[in-house]
Fold this sequence. Notes:
elongated, alpha+beta
Amino acid sequence: MGxxxxxxxxxxxxxxxxxxxxxxxxAAVALVGVAPARSGSVSADxxxxxxxxxxxxxxxxxxxxxPGRHRCQxxxxxxxxxxxxxxxxxxxxxxxxxxxxxxxxxx
Length: 107
């Protein structure tokens, strides 16, 4: 019978983080190419109310974009006069290729 080779648990644990990090890096690279997105923000002011400023900013989000977080601030512009400014962030998924180009095989 040949020699008995014992694998120490310590050696297995030393290899595990390397394998895990390589797998994580490969998954991250794969996901980055799958769904690139574009993002941006729009802002709007109002002299009436914060809600009016927020509504105006949401109306400026481009068609097809997904609204995200919003921030609003109240600014004093004179004695007892306020102006409200709201910023709405949005993201847009990558645009799809036209149907003609999708059906053709890639070279």
